Amino acid sequence: MLDIPKAELHVHIEGTMEPEMVFELARRNEVELPYSSVAELRSRYEFTDLQSFLDIYYANMAVLRTRRDFRELAAAYLRESARQGVRHAEIFFDPQAHLARGVEMAPIVEGLSEGIAEVADSGVTAELILCFLRDESAGSAMDTLRLAEPFLDHIIGVGLDSAEVGHPPSKFTDVFERARELGLRAVAHAGEEGPAEYVREALDLLRVERVDHGIRALYDPGLVDRLRREQTPLTVCPLSNVRLGSFDHLSQHTLPRLMAEGLMVTINSDDPAYFGGYVGENFSAVREHLGITREQLRQLAANSVRASFLGSERKSALL
Ligand code: ES4
Ligand code: ZN
Fold it and tell me: Which residues does the UniProt site feature Important for catalytic activity point to (predicted)?
């Protein structure tokens, strides 16, 4: 299963920072942490919903300060993922969270790019997707996009993440239109905790090419028909959905139903340092707890390559 070539399309680079790295960077950058050990930090990783996770995710990010930090973070994620069969990753990053602490766009984007370049010899490729924090204003998102303009060579697209409920995609229509004018691709988190209507808005107003999560689309049969007809990729994150309370146990996850509906489903890790595993562990878990067959795992892996922003030649090579 680890040997099947895969693409990871839904991973937040800040969510790949393992507790050991949180402590290492805190020491190096002289940032004070409110925990005395890695074990104590890890013991806080009991989440009830998305916000309870986001609170600790944003707090831990305070240790990320320099170009070197971002480079090491990206390289470590890609090395581990490559071991699990990931041949290509499209990686989210949250610049607003770092800009707010006085870290500039250049060390963030260039550091992440250097990390990607550092592991190129292992055959894994990656692209960066700039995510806007939906619980910040549309104006802040537009300012962030403007700050990113000198770095567009390093950025393939834009996304939308953070606290979903109460922050509909419609809030960001103009920002996504501007991003499209700049030649960027578009994706958005929708239907993770928010309603199916947010998935429709992401498609109609933000004109996204993939929906991140999208699990709540199943509450809307008309939307399911549309997603099937258009074969819109959904980047599903099984371990994340369980850790954040969408399902009580992995055996209750609706991944099999999404597949049975004929949707273009992919499997991803979201925030692997927080949710119990990278893409390989997500694949193993759905096989064990949802009865997903080896053949279906192959299908899910092939979907991830097809749903990526890779060119047709590289896609063919990975299929
Ligand atoms: C996230 Cl799981 C999840 N959902 C929304 N925004 C996020 N940012 C990082 N992880
Ligand atoms: Zn996510």
Answer: 213
Has residue 257 been placed in a domain?
Answer: yes
Per the structure, the complete domain to which residue 304 belongs is given by: 6-318
d(CA 276, CA 271): 9
Q: Is 14 annotated in the active site?
A: no
CATH of the domain at 117: 3.20.20.140
- Determine which one of 18, 127, 192, 193 is catalytic: 192
pTM value surpassing 0.90: yes
Ligand nearest to the CA of 135: 1
Distance of CA 180 to the CA centre of its chain: 20
- Tens of pLDDT, residues 124-151: 999 999 999 999 999 999 999 999 999 9
- What's at 104, amino acid-wise? E
Residue 261 backbone phi and psi in degrees, to 5? -75, -5
Residue 50 lies in a domain: yes
Is there a domain that residue 275 lies in? Answer: yes
In a domain, 261, yes or no: yes
* Ligand 1 in reach of 240 Cβ (< 6 A): yes
Ligand 1 centroid to residue 70 C-alpha, Å: 18
Q: Is 159 in the pocket of ligand 1 (CB under 6 A)?
A: no
CA of 104 to the centre of ligand 2 (A): 23
Which one, of 235, 240, 41, 224, lies nearest residue 131 by Cα?
235
At 318 the three-state DSSP class reads helix
Can you say how many angstroms the Cα of residue 190 is from the centroid of all Cα atoms in its chain? 12
From 161, 167, 198, 268, the mutation candidate for ligand 1 (largest count of ligand atoms within 8 A of CB) is 161
* Residue 189 Cβ contacting ligand 1 at under 6 Å: yes
Q: What is the pLDDT of residues 275-309, one digit of tens each?
A: 999 999 999 999 999 999 999 999 999 999 999 99
Query: Would the CB of 193 count as within 6 Å of ligand 1?
Result: no
Q: How many domains does the structure of the chain reveal?
A: 1
